[in-house]
Amino acid sequence: MTSPDPVPFPIDHLTSRGAPDDVALIDRAGTMTFRDLETAVAALAGWLAGQGLAKGERVATWLPKTRVACVMPLAAARAGLLHVPVNPLLRRAQVAHILADSGAALLVTQGARAATLEPGDVPADCAIVDEAVLDLQREGGPGPSDADPATLAAILYTSGSTGRPKGVMLSHANLSLGAVSVAHYLKLTRDDRVLGVLPLSFDYGQNQLFSTWAAGAAVAPIDYMVARDVVKAVERVGATTLAGVPPLWVQLLEADWPAETAARLRRLTNSGGALTPRLVTGLRARFAGADIYAMYGLTEAFRSTYLDPALIDAHPDAMGRAIPFAQVSVIRPDGTRAAPGEPGELVHAGPLVAQGYWRDAERTAQRFRPAPDGNGMAVWSGDTVVEGADGLLRFVGRDDEMIKSAGNRISPLEVEEAVLAGNEAREAVAVGVADPRLGQAIVVMLAGDAADEPALRTRLRTALPSFMQPAGYLWRDALPRNANAKLDRSAIAAEVRAWSTANEQGRA
């Protein structure tokens, strides 16, 4: 397979990657061809240009996978604006943080969602627009942009182990080369139909639009409630490609799949957590004709590695090798390259590396540092990996306390802040514990009275999105502390995980 073209381009040029009459988007309303997609991007970009926004201002969308949500990333970029997609599962407090931190000048959402926001949640100079007033079929509007690929096009918010979500700054080049890279190594072709189940606020969820269009293929974004919805959608749109996270694969393997529907899928791609050998075996049995792509990535560099489907049976524990345009190395604490078999930090350099965190020089300096070879900037992932004699990378562990649940990266501190926003507990520490369906579930150790737990659960149902809801609470009169009188997070995590394991064994 020849290498893909490494020349970046403005991301809105994706409307011209497919044949004009080929289908680009499939949804409940029908289909959009690439010609229709260009019309919609031009129309929305023209409307944005008429709102009096200065170049580089931020436009946020808080939407399910509607046509406006799918078109806005290209339209905002064409209008010289930065798109800020907000996860539709987030509640008002998280949405308010993203709007304030990004300095959004415009929020495109739906009336029912806007009604949940309270005074002060939206910056005074941020206008709210209902997507229902936007006309994507209006003729006219600007043609493909001549933007410098190095200019910013989007800010994607991602959780860290400390503090609130931070905005990752992505350029046209980051987005367009990421699209070309994925389309290339997945071997997408014009006759593929990609079912988009991941949130568009996730880097890979958004890339499912971009990489599909880069290949001149059709994408079918869906919002689903249960696994059966995904099965029906595969049949309805004739999907050939499905991306998921480990908890979704667990659910899909438990669902009833007509043989002819399962046979439609040629390609399964996984991110957001490692595939277990058991999952690989299950997917092989259920989708015998599909190639399985295991992938690893981080929003700050989009995607770092993938494992060739031909290797997954023999090496189910491997992360694979660098994707096209990625420069990946394993580095010792002293900055030198680790030897094969020696653990080190995964460092990602090259043109997929983002431009840092929005308005956060301190955290940018911590994560984005000069590449080991001195050639440009790199993302120092904080993940410990090892490169085997076979050249394949394998994950060892993280050096922070990030919780990964149902494919979501969750900051313990963000959960703790929500827990402590009421009067039910004096102190709280959130810990991720192993869960067969979610990957990790959230358990919180609290100082306080267990009698207040029902009130806490009730309050958190409105304060946190569903994927951030704690699965369990462990109450204590006081939380363990270290010699410096600080909360002993290591001891707390060990106690929480032992408690969780004991509970699991008790239920078994």
Give a quick set of tags describing it.
GMP Synthetase, Chain A, domain 3, alpha/beta, Acyl-CoA ligase (AMP-forming) (Exosortase A-associated), ligase activity, forming carbon-sulfur bonds, 508 residues, 4-stranded parallel sheet, AMP-binding_CS, ANL_N_sf
- Radius of gyration from the alpha-carbon trace, in angstroms: 23 Å
**What would the average pLDDT be, to the nearest integer?**
93
> What's the architecture of the domain at 403-507, going by CATH?
2-Layer Sandwich
State the CATH superfamily name of the domain at 403-507: ANL, C-terminal domain
CATH first level of the domain at 403-507: which class?
Answer: Alpha Beta
Main beta sheet strand tally, sense and closure: 12 strands, mixed
Structural class, judged by helices and strands? alpha/beta
Low-confidence parts lasting 5 or more residues at pLDDT below 50? none
Strand content: 25-35%
User: Which geometry do the CA atoms define?
Assistant: globular
**CATH topology name of the domain at 403-507:** GMP Synthetase, Chain A, domain 3
Helix content: 25-40%
DSSP strand tally: 25
Number of helices, counting only DSSP H or I runs of 4 residues or more: 14
From the N-terminal CA to the C-terminal CA, the straight-line distance is: 50 Å
